[in-house]
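To illustrate this point, we now present one chain and its tokenised fold:
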Amino acid sequence: MSNREIRYRDALREAMSEEMRRDPSVLLIGEEVAEYNGAYKVSQGMLDEFGPKRIIDTPISELGFAGIGVGMAMNGVRPIVEFMTWNFALLAIDQVVNASAKMLAMSGGAFGNPIVFRGPSGSAGQLGAQHSQTFESWYANVPGLKVISPSNPYDAKGLLKSAIRDDDPVVFMESEVMYGDPGIVPEEEYLIPIGVAEIKREGSDVTLVSYNKMMKVALAAADELAKDGISAEVIDLRTIRPLDIETILRSVRKTNRVVVIDESWPYGGISAEIAYRIQREAFDYLDAPVRRVNGADASMHYAPNLVAAYLPDPGKVIKVVKESLYLPS
């Protein structure tokens, strides 16, 4: 394969454009996706190529255009619905959860809902309490939805292409602060299967599990731990639902310790589910309790020192890893 370096936003654009060229039933709908080229320039140039019937600007009405997307998906279209942020998609959660996720079951199999809801999730710095929430665990709680949250351009492109082709509704979580991140992406077409985690770094002393931009924290912590002779294996979940628990369990059986890094609130979140699954299925392999590094159990504040206090960072991960290894931190 011939590789080149492109940005996260470009990888998403390539995924959507390739699928739109392949399948005329695929279209993109959302706020500012057409004339403005996307709020984060993810859809830049797509209006020129595909025209206003397939790249569709909407009013500022998330509930309305999400519902239009659900109806399209019931009638032979494969819509990609872009939310400017998943914080705004709270206004559309009824359509995502009560309509899209339940459509196949409530129609007795008569109507599927092949739709992708995508946009950024999580904190992007000093944006305050209403624009800094992490929603993967919310949607992963809902049967009927698949939830994807990639950490780099390569995974983002391959998983978005798979999501567009999937016959179930997919919630695709990105990050505002990753759209400019560069990464190596092949020029040739490729797909990444939904529901498969990846070991990004091999290790033997402790397993670090994360996803989305918290993978940067996990990998940075692993680099620092290596300087102290601690070998951390780092797993990128990539898909939140379905969860690839087997990859995690294989790693835990090797390292005997695990720390889950999750930006979202600790109560009832993804890290809690992973901890439960590990203790249920690999308890006898654990040499220390499963540990978690989460965002603070509070609303995000605006002040930069409080943002830093709220979010996981490599230092917090290193401290918890050393506690898990019963080493002084």
